[in-house]
Amino acid sequence: MNACLNATAAVLLWVGRGLVRDGRERAHRVVMGAAFATSTLFLASYVTHKVARDFENTPFWGEGIAQIAYLAMLATHVLLAMAVPPLAITLIVLGVRGRRGAHRRLARWAWPIWMYVSVTGVLIYLLLYPLRPGV
Question: pTM (2 decimals)?
Answer without folding.
Answer: 0.92
